[in-house]
Amino acid sequence: MKQMGSVSMNNIFGIVPSRRLGRSLGVSTIPISTCSYSCVYCQLGRTRNMTIRRHNFFKIDDLVMQLKGYQDKKDKFDVITLVGEGEPTLYEQTGELIKRIKQLFDKPIALITNGSLFFLEEVRQDCMHADIVMPTLDAWDDDSFKTLNRPFKTITFEKMYNGLVDFRGEYKGDFYLEIMCVKGITDQGNNMALLTEKINKLNPDKVFVNTPVRPPAEKWVERCTKEFIEKLQKQFKTNTDLEIPDTNLYSHNLDLYQAIIEIIKRHPLDQSSIEKFCKNREEDPEQMIKRLSEDKNVERIKYENKVFYRIKSKKR
Ligand code: SF4
Q: Are residues 296 and 210 in the same domain?
């Protein structure tokens, strides 16, 4: 889930306007940058806690308690999304958490995942409880997998892909695939045909074609051309707008600076979004940008003709 949003409590963020799911209330069940991959395009930078060990990073009762705070805002969101700043299936009680959320809300529950752990029966079982499961598939063989996703050392492409195939065969909910296209890799030779073959075998209900629109982990990563993306979107009959939507940011945090800091821990924000956020709160955007620029914990990154702000890796 790569959108702008708001922050209220530690693990809940939103309501976030998602290009793919509508208005989404996000639930983050893992610490920032805890993942089984270290994708070259990751907007969080290089993964700091690389793992495939599942763990209850947060108490399930605390997560449920935080979610209860949103029961009176039910009409403001369409979907509850488990999405981490890393890989959400690393949360050991994912299945139990989904069941408990369903007791609280009459809303679909989506899970956004890199799909790397579906080779584990317990992960497949947990994910069965979600209404929408959206794994990522960027690679078509072991080389492309290692180049783009840089997985944990014991995960091979075959292991990951077979896990997806197994899950697809068992799962009855909506199965959407997301692909991230990187210039110079996805768009070279017949790579896209090879990836398409893998995608088609999974028979997804939808395919979302993406290319990096926020600063990536590695400087050499560039987005594919609009023409290439549009061609793919036609091929998969999807029509996702790649631009970062011009939406109003929202936060429960009355301290605007802290609200921005909480957001840029999770998503780099471009300057115009920050300025708009300030204006909506009737605060001086120039002062806020100056403060961010002087904050030694914040990095200022130029990407694709925009200036983004994000918390420096070690401070997140
Ligand atoms: S993009 Fe997602 S899967 Fe890849 S390293 Fe970042 S958090 Fe992990």
A: no
Nearest C-alpha neighbor of 213 from the set 165, 246, 187: 246
Q: Which residue, of 224, 247, 270, is where some domain finishes?
A: 247
Cβ 113 under 6 angstroms from ligand 1: no
Host domain of residue 28: 12-247
Give the model confidence (pLDDT) of 43-63 as tens digits.
Answer: 988 999 999 999 999 999 999
**Could you give the angle at which helices 285-294 and 256-266 cross, rounded to 10 degrees?**
60
* Cβ 145 under 6 angstroms from ligand 1: no
Instruction: Check pLDDT > 90 for residue 283.
Output: no
* Residue 177 CB contacts under 8 Å (≥ 6 apart), including other chains: 134, 135, 136, 137, 199, 202, 204, 206, 207, 208
98-142 pLDDT per residue, tens: 999 999 999 999 999 999 999 999 999 999 999 999 999 999 999
Distance of CA 124 to the CA centre of its chain: 19
Query: What does each C-alpha distance from 63 to 10, 29, 103, 285 come to in angstroms?
Result: 9, 8, 13, 34
- Structure token digits, residue 45: 């930078």
Least confident window among 16-20, 40-44, 176-180, 293-297: 16-20
Please report which helix (H) or strand (E) contains residue 270, including its range. strand 269-270
The verdict on the CB of residue 114 being under 6 Å from ligand 1 is: yes
Report CA(44)–ligand 1 centroid distance (Å). Answer: 8
Our answer on whether the CB atom of 45 is closer than 6 Å to any ligand 1 atom is: no
The domain boundary, picked from 247, 273, 300, lies at: 247
Q: What is 53-118 written as a DSSP string?
A: --B--S-HHHHHHHHHTTGGGGGG-SEEEE--SB-GGGBTTHHHHHHHHHHH--S-EEEEE--TTT
